[in-house]
TrEMBL record:
This is Class A beta-lactamase-related serine hydrolase. Keywords: Hydrolase. It comes from Pseudomonas cavernicola. The lineage of its organism: Bacteria, Pseudomonadati, Pseudomonadota, Gammaproteobacteria, Pseudomonadales. Signal peptide: none annotated. Residues 18-372 form the Beta-lactamase-related domain. It holds the Pfam family Beta-lactamase. PANTHER family: BETA-LACTAMASE-RELATED (PTHR43319), BETA-LACTAMASE-RELATED DOMAIN-CONTAINING PROTEIN (PTHR43319:SF3). The keyword Kinase does not apply. InterPro entries: Beta-lactam-related, Beta-lactam/transpept-like, Beta-lactamase/esterase. The keyword Hydrolase applies. One of its GO terms (molecular function) is hydrolase activity.
């Protein structure tokens, strides 16, 4: 496999580890970007951008980043907090009055961002096309009763996070949530990151498909078993209501929509650049960055059925939990996306890391491919 791009010779072992990913015949395409104190030491890509292996992965290939999007969304919300347009501990209903229904009058933005609001799923099954209708989804969530007492425990809001936080952004900032997030995070840093992708960019989007035969770890198998056997459970509803969530990533209407939990499009470079910008204080002041990265939730996740640890819209490292460590240091924070893509920062090493792949793995939190690359990076530092 021909590896393209740039690497600093001090990090040749990372380049070799990246090349070794393609020893697996199922690996289609991926890219890796690592910045240290804002300087790029690795910027590599390889493989194919499509399922048929006819289109090579190019320098400017982008793809759906899934939940890597969530931290961009949280940062935009915290910027609005800094501007006094939102407040972390004020009721959501002060900005979104309809949200007060069904016992939600005291839920706060902080609870939404840290997955403590009790709203990871909708009980009533919606039509597949509801996924693309912003007003339908936000109205359903405004009417929904929390699945547990808000503030008591946490459960990952895999996709509802996008409508919940996105509707607050829309109301506070007066523009589409994706427009707000891109203007506040990507544009100031010059990142190739999109949330609501223009049709003229579709030609460079990598097609995403699953690897076959790998059942993943115990956490992945537990989640799959629940979804197969308990169709009305909160966990199943979180990922399969509307039922189109799991099958939409390559569709034009998914690319066009602004779903700030899960459909940001970018590449490894945009992820590393975002986290470099955070570490350099270019997106949030020190106080708000400390809020973003402070532990808000830890323990058994009511949705994912595994141990998770969250700040505000970011996942925090759990060095002692094999499926939940970024592989560098205990201060690391960032967000994995479904199937393997990941962006994170390690403030101790001053590292910003972005890895993207169009070969979906089955893991619930961290993908072993990215963990291995981060471990090798640690050995080079």
């Amino acid at each position: 496999m021909q590896i393209q791009g740039y690497f600093d010779l001090n990090f040749e072992a990372v380049k070799d580890a990246f090349a070794a990913l393609f020893d697996d015949p199922q690996e289609r395409g991926s890219a890796l970007c690592i910045q240290i104190e804002g300087e790029t030491v690795i910027d590599l890509w390889a493989g194919s951008a499509d399922k048929a292996a006819e289109q090579p992965w190019h320098r400017d290939t982008i793809l759906n980043l899934f939940s890597c999007t969530k931290t961009f969304t949280a940062v935009a919300a915290l910027q609005l907090v800094a501007e006094g347009k939102l407040a972390l501990d004020a009721p959501v209903a002060t900005v979104w009055p309809e949200f007060a229904a069904a016992g939600k009058e005291r839920i706060t933005l902080r609870q939404l961002l840290s997955h403590r609001a009790g709203l990871p799923a909708l009980r009533e099954l919606l039509a597949p096309e509801a996924l693309y209708d912003w007003d339908t989804m936000t109205a359903a969530l405004a009417a929904e009763q929390p699945w547990w007492t808000p503030g008591e425990g946490h459960g990952y809001a895999a996709i509802t996070y996008g409508w919940l936080v996105g509707e607050l952004l829309r109301r506070a900032d007066g523009r589409g949530p994706g427009d707000s997030i891109v203007a506040r995070t990507a544009q100031p840093l010059g990142l190739d990151f999109h949330l609501g992708l223009a049709d003229e960019e579709f030609y460079r989007v990598a097609e995403i498909s699953r690897a076959k035969g790998n059942l993943g770890d115990a956490a992945a198998q537990r989640l799959l078993k629940t979804m197969m056997n308990e169709p009305t459970s909160m966990t199943t509803r979180a990922f399969a209501n509307p039922p189109s969530i799991m099958t939409s990533t390559n569709k034009p209407e998914w690319r066009r929509m602004q779903q700030p939990a899960a459909n940001g499009h970018g590449n490894a470079r945009s992820l590393a650049g975002f986290y470099s910008g955070l570490l350099a204080g270019r997106l949030l002041d020190r106080e708000l960055l400390a809020e973003l990265t402070r532990e808000h939730s830890v323990g058994e996740d009511k949705t994912l059925l595994t141990q998770t640890r969250f700040g505000l819209g970011c996942m925090l490292d759990q060095p002692a939990v094999p499926n939940a460590t970024y592989g560098l240091g205990p201060q690391a924070f960032g967000h994995p996306g479904a199937g393997g893509s990941i962006g994170f920062a390690d403030p101790e090493c001053k590292v910003a890391f972005g890895f993207v792949t169009n070969t979906l793995g089955p893991y619930v939190l961290m993908d072993p491919r990215a963990q291995k690359l981060a471990r090798v990076l640690g050995e080079c530092l």
